[in-house]
Amino acid sequence: MPPSGTYRVQVRPDFGLKATAELADYLAELGVSHLYTAPLLTATPGSEHGYDVVDHSAVSPALGGAAALSDLSNALKNAGLGLVVDIVPNHAGVGVPHVNPTWWDVLRRGRESEFADFYDIDWSRGRILLPTLADSPDALDDLRLEDGELRYFDKRYPIADGTGDGTPREVHDRQHYELVNWTRGDSELNYRRFFSIVDLAGLRVEDPKVFDATHAEILRWVHEGIAQGLRVDHPDGLRDPGAYFERLRAAAPEAWIVVEKILEPGEEMPGWPVAGTTGYDALAEVGGVFVDPGTEAFFDTLQHHLDGSVTSWQDLVHETKYTAATKLLGAELARMARLVPEVEAAPRALAELAACFPVYRSYLPYGSRQLAKARAEAGRRRPQLIPVLDQLLGRLRNPDDELAARFQQYTGAVMAKGVEDTAFYRWTRFTARNEVGNDPTDFGVAPDDFHEATEERRRHWPDAMTSLSTHDTKRSEDVRARLAVLSEVPGDWTEVVRRWVRIAPLPDPALAHLVWQAAVGAWPLSRERLQAYALKAAKEAAASTSWTQPDEAFETALREMVDRIYDDPALHREVADFAASITPPGWINSLGQKAVQLTMPGVPDVYQGSELWDFSLVDPDNRRPVDFAARRELLTRIDDGWLPPVDETGAAKLLVTSRALRLRRQRPELFAGYRPLYAEGRCGEHLLGFDRGGAVTIATRLPVGLSRHGGWGDTEVSLDGHSWTEVFTNTSYGGNRLSVAELLRTYPVALLVKEK
């Protein structure tokens, strides 16, 4: 059976399996059916996320090891809960070689290692390049021999048998690896990476031997009943995701499997034997329906005024993707080009195709039409490449061709680095829509379009995960909900932000607009949090400074801009006052989003802490510790009969979350269908509602506009004449037509259940 609801916990060394086990009773009371954890296998020492696995055979000792996992399993079972575990098949951590036994053996023995085929290494290029040296021609002089190993500062490397005599430089030159300048990683590396991260080496999980070795422990958890579900990280990096999922399903036939597949708007997922995605598609739909689509032109005008930009989103994306394709992923591009040595312009043509690719990747033969679209757009942008594009296309269409296989792995990385990690930080028109799985030019989502997409999900992927916040979202659900209010007050926002950029100027006005939206969206937040976010955003945007080429003068100006918000009393007060003005309607949006996500088709996930207001920004801000004691106390008060007000405590969100989750867990038969519900009356467009087959959800949208109309007035909804109980307030209603003003008198959302 799929979960009725999951709760994501960022299990990490400072909040390990023992601490997680202590949440079991709280999560059961909250109403979820399954705990959903970050990766649990042994990761690089100090890892705070677990996606850099170094030993696939053991639960991480830093999290408590196998005994702690067993205790967690027992605690969950005693509370009536299951477990869903995040797994990482695409890559392994290699940044600290001596803790990864398979990578260490490959470095020591080269192609003679029994693990030589474990990793996606281009052995034709000779020694494995390890970009770890300082940017200095004399960096190798810092090598030393110690305890039978080569050492470079705190880095340790193995020495092949019989090669340990001589100076450190001489010993180094005899190894199966070559330590090189760290700047050469993006262009010359000869092993596949996760995106552009040299410390994460690609695994050849398409090899059954590698699959078995990397999944034996995970599958043991499934077979022994420790885990009932798996969340698969980054399947787009795999050589053949379809074959991988077939193998995984055969090995775990009863498991609930969801995949981190990021669908672009309108894209359909292949018919893999899985429950569906992890919910970024649902996130985009839910978030968009709470945005006023009629004010897009205001934000276009404001963006042009602030930064003078005339570049379209499509052209910006092409630019950032092409840069990612040729620079950050230059090593992967060069490896593909070596497969077509007869085509001199292959690198340019392959990069252009990747920059024009409209989705993350194809899964040949599925999705081959996306290749045709990329070819057409690449030809339009680079007509001189048309003969080369056509020459390559035949091979790129062939799923058995090595070039086609690698190109499919490449386009996903180009999309992620070019769009998620760059363009989203440059296109700052309205950042409530700058989220993974969404096109920011889709300013808002009409209710009819929302209903259509939701009904499609019910028909095709009813057990997929839905989410609003994750460890990868650019800003939390409550920040986006508050920023959605800006779409209802575009004139007010234009006035204040134009004044603020004059008071606290920044040479990069697009980035400034991003920072101002972060400030009001997450306010109140500490100076340190906003400074950290602004600096990360600037480096990701890579327009005025970057991770590899920092501009100290610009970063100083950025710090001074943020400091001004806190040190200028008048500006600080104005920012605080504006944030306060959009906070109450933001709460209404937050409750609406949550009620919709928790009750729509799919399996709802609650990201840790987001059952109360959570105004987090991008990681690591969204991995901050959660005060579970406060949440327990508030939930107890609610269960004792307290109806919390919609205020800064966020307890109203906890009420909505717990009651919706409990109902889904206790009465799944009420959530088998889907029928849109429309209101009648002058404010009917402000209601979003649907009937799941006995459970009816009603949410308020565009609350500022509703207030301008004086409230709900004569607006009514028609039900089927039964008696109904509203779950959040435990109030009974009867009759065919219900007054929305009466129904939403206490909260801006309602969940109605037919009385038996």
Overview of the structural elements:
By secondary structure, this protein is α/β, with parallel strands linked by helices. Among the domains are: 6-90 and 205-278, Glycosidases (TIM Barrel), CATH 3.20.20.80; 97-202, Maltooligosyl trehalose synthase, domain 2, CATH 3.30.1590.10; 310-433, no CATH class; 483-582, Arc Repressor Mutant, subunit A (Orthogonal Bundle). 43% of the residues lie in helices and 14% in strands. The protein contains 27 helices and 27 strands. Strands 16-15-14-5-2-1-18-17 form an eight-stranded parallel β-sheet. A six-stranded antiparallel β-sheet has the order 19-21-22-27-24-25, covered by helices on one side. Strands 6-13-12 form a three-stranded antiparallel β-sheet, with no helix packed on it. The protein is globular and about 90 Å long. The mean pLDDT is 97. This is (1->4)-alpha-D-glucan 1-alpha-D-glucosylmutase. Keywords: Isomerase. It is an enzyme of class 5 (isomerase).
Show the helix and strand layout:
Blueprint: E1 6-9, H1 17-21, H2 24-30, E2 34-37, E3 41-43, E4 53-59, H3 65-78, E5 82-87, E6 91-93, H4 101-109, E7 128-133, E8 143-146, E9 149-152, E10 155-157, H5 168-172, E11 177-181, H6 185-188, E12 193-194, E13 197-202, H7 208-223, E14 229-232, H8 241-251, E15 256-259, E16 276-277, H9 280-288, H10 296-307, H11 313-328, H12 330-337, H13 346-356, H14 368-381, H15 386-396, H16 402-426, H17 447-460, E17 465-466, H18 477-484, H19 490-503, H20 509-522, H21 527-541, H22 552-567, H23 569-599, E18 603-607, H24 628-639, H25 651-666, E19 675-677, E20 679-680, E21 687-691, E22 695-700, H26 703-708, E23 716-718, E24 724-726, E25 731-733, E26 737-739, H27 740-743, E27 749-754
Parallel strand pairs: 1-2, 1-18, 2-5, 5-14, 7-11, 14-15, 15-16, 17-18
Antiparallel strand pairs: 3-4, 6-13, 8-9, 9-10, 12-13, 19-21, 20-23, 21-22, 22-27, 23-26, 24-25, 24-27
